[in-house]
């Protein structure tokens, strides 16, 4: 066994875990690791980002897309705090991720040295923190142990992020250790007795509804879920921003349960007499602020299946709690014997009909002002994007167009297709899309608002540098639209802090090396999209949207008038 720099050993450990790309912003605190990436450039690529928040979002997207921990490297202090937004996203979204933080040298620690931060306190592993585990590697011989444990922790139970802190002087020591083998997630199987109880609950039900979401899904588990739903003729709704767990084209799909939920689906959730939640932790967005499903004791019978025992009965007291990973749970459910007929066939058909009516906004929908018809634009995307396209978004009202109107192809088709932050992090969509393009080579489409785009638009330079392309639909209404919507609801007419004076987005995109077009009428979008799909570079399609078009269900003026009437 030959001696090597500890920084080189760390890179070899990542390769042993199957990592092909690491995202980050370089720092002098981990130069030895950067040298390790150079030494192993034929097996792993370091993607140089422009800001640590963008790098962390890319690593989080890597975890979502691949099911393996995304990897991010940042330097101490400001680098780590900038990256915290991606870590928080990974925590709330149940995404496996490992953040490596270059740190001050050991002899300077605990003196408030240059850029020093107490990472255990800052990232604090807890049910309310930003990481599942935070550890410092002081002995370079133990690097393989710490890296393997980080990957195991990120993958097992409820997936999530881990932080490893790397003292600068530790990385420059020589060591003769070797990487440990690749870590695979442990499968937790459903208890056979619990499955018999679940079958009994199903046989007693009249209005059952499946809620699918959370982390840990694969094409195999999604396929098994579909077979379970078909065997029992169950309606299936996907939870907030996990809309690709179940095929939206399927005759038993009921829609997504999250922000901006279809009112008809919200009623179905309340009317259900048996909710089977497979994977989600049933957070605030999915439960309508804990009202669709009342906490702590739901009105409906609740079967909660989750990979982490700590999540079960944490917020909701379930009728039946099953601790199982998604692959194991779905494979157990698909062989659960169904009766020849069920009592809820019409209920399932009605749930799907509600979904189809919600997608068809032209049928009785509100006529929105301006020269841009967003439903037509989304339906155009549906026709032209390939089945394996990856769609990404950040946070803002603009995302509701995609969430409500686009029919995601479920992972049962073989591909993860939706990357979106359940924690509502603005600025996620652009870097997530670029990461997906780098990692997969598939067509990537991002929808962003003007405020959302400006948070991480600099990562277009990262895309160009690394030969990636994405298509970005940028909806420009000169406002932080979600905040303006809430202002009109709570303080009508009092506009404060939500207006934006924007740059020339097309000129900005071209400066980075992207193509760009400005669209002012709906008819211009389809040919522009076709050009973007065949272009050799990424493309920004700026759509100048009337601020009145604030949601998929109404106008800003109508919202203001309703608020004023309520206050008088």
Would you give an account of this structure?
The protein has 568 residues and is an alpha/beta fold. The protein has 3 domains: 4-175, Thiamin diphosphate (ThDP)-binding fold, Pyr/PP domains (Rossmann fold, 3-Layer(aba) Sandwich); 192-357, TPP-binding domain (Rossmann fold, 3-Layer(aba) Sandwich); 360-567, Rossmann fold (3-Layer(aba) Sandwich), CATH 3.40.50. The chain is 38% helix and 16% strand. Helix 20 (525-534) links the parallel strand 19 (515-519) and strand 20 (539-544). Helix 1 crosses helix 2 (31-39), helix 3 (52-66) packs parallel to helix 4 and helix 13 (374-384) runs parallel beside helix 20 (525-534).
CATH second-level architecture of the largest domain: 3-Layer(aba) Sandwich
Mean pLDDT level: 94
* CATH uppermost class of the largest domain: Alpha Beta
Strand order of the largest sheet: 3-2-4-5-7-6
Radius of gyration using CA atoms only: 24 Å
Under CATH, the topology of the largest domain can be stated as Rossmann fold
Q: Can you count the beta strands?
A: 20
Can I get a quick summary?
By secondary structure, the protein is of the alpha/beta class. It has three domains: about 5-175, Rossmann fold (3-Layer(aba) Sandwich); about 190-355, Rossmann fold (3-Layer(aba) Sandwich), CATH 3.40.50.1220; about 360-565, Thiamin diphosphate (ThDP)-binding fold, Pyr/PP domains (Rossmann fold, 3-Layer(aba) Sandwich). The chain is built from 21 helices and 20 strands.
Helix and strand layout, with pairings?
Elements (H helix, E strand, L loop, with lengths): L3 E2 H11 L4 E4 L6 H9 L5 E4 L3 H15 L3 E5 L3 H16 L3 E7 L15 H5 L9 E4 L6 H13 L5 E7 H4 L2 E2 L16 H13 L3 E5 L6 H14 L3 E4 L13 E5 L5 H9 L2 E5 L22 E6 L13 E4 L2 H9 L10 H15 L14 H11 L5 E4 L5 H7 L12 E2 L9 H12 L3 E6 H7 L3 H6 L5 E6 L4 H10 L14 H8 L2 E5 L5 H10 L4 E6 L11 H12 L1
Parallel strand pairs: 2-3, 2-4, 4-5, 5-7, 6-7, 9-10, 9-12, 10-11, 12-13, 13-14, 15-16, 15-17, 17-18, 18-20, 19-20
Antiparallel strand pairs: 1-8
Helix pairs in contact: 1-2, 1-6, 3-4, 3-15, 9-11, 13-20, 18-21
């Amino acid at each position: 066994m030959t001696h090597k720099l500890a920084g080189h050993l760390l890179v070899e450990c990542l390769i042993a875990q199957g990592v092909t790309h690491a995202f980050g912003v370089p720092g002098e605190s981990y130069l030895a690791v950067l040298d390790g990436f150079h030494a192993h450039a034929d097996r792993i690529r370091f993607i140089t980002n422009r800001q640590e928040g963008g790098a962390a979002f890319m690593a989080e997207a890597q975890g979502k897309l691949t099911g393996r921990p995304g990897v991010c490297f940042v330097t101490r202090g400001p680098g780590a705090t900038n990256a915290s937004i991606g870590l928080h996203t990974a925590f709330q979204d149940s995404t496996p991720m490992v953040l490596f933080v270059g740190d001050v040298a050991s002899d300077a620690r605990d003196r408030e040295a240059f850029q020093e931060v107490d990472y255990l306190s800052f990232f604090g592993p807890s049910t309310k923190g930003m990481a599942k585990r935070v550890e410092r590697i002081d002995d370079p011989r133990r690097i393989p142990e710490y890296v393997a444990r980080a990957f195991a922790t990120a993958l097992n139970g409820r997936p999530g992020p881990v932080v490893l802190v790397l003292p600068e002087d530790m990385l420059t020591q020589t060591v003769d250790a070797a990487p440990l083998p690749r870590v695979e997630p442990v499968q937790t199987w459903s208890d056979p007795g619990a499955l018999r109880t679940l079958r009994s609950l199903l046989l007693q039900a009249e209005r059952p509804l499946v809620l699918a979401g959370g982390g840990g899904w694969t094409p195999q588990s999604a396929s098994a879920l579909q077979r379970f739903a078909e065997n029992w003729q169950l309606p299936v709704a996907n939870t907030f921003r996990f809309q690709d767990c179940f095929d939206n084209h399927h005759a038993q799909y009921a829609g997504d349960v999250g922000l901006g939920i279809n009112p008809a689906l919200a009623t179905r959730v309340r009317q259900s007499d048996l909710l089977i939640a497979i994977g989600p932790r049933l957070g605030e967005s999915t439960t309508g602020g804990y009202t669709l499903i009342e906490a702590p004791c739901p009105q409906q019978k609740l079967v909660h299946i989750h990979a982490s025992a700590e999540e079960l009965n944490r917020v909701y007291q379930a009728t039946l709690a099953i601790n199982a990973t998604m692959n194991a749970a779905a494979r157990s459910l698909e062989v659960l014997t169904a009766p020849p007929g069920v009592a809820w066939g019409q209920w399932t058909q009605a749930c799907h009909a509600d979904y189809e009516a919600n997608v068809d906004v032209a049928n009785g929908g509100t006529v929105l002002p301006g020269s841009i018809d967003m439903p037509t634009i989304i339906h155009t995307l549906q026709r032209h994007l390939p089945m394996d396209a990856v769609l990404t978004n950040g946070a803002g009202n603009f995302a509701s167009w995609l969430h409500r109107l686009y029919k995601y192809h479920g992972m049962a088709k073989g591909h993860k297709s939706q990357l979106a932050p359940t924690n509502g992090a603005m600025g996620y969509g652009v870097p997530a899309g670029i990461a997906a393009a780098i990692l997969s080579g598939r067509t990537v489409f991002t929808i962003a608002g003007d405020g959302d785009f400006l948070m991480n638009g600099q990562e277009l330079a990262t895309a160009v540098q690394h030969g990636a392309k994405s298509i970005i639909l940028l909806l420009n209404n000169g406002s932080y639209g979600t905040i303006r919507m809430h202002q009109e609801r709570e303080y009508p007419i009092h506009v404060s802090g939500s207006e934006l004076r924007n740059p020339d987005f097309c000129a900005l995109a071209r400066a980075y090396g992207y193509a760009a077009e400005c669209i002012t009428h709906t008819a211009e979008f389809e040919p522009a999209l076709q050009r973007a799909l065949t272009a050799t570079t990424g493309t920004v399609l700026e759509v100048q949207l009337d601020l009145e078009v604030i949601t998929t269900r109404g106008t800003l003026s109508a919202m203001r008038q309703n608020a004023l009437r309520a206050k008088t």
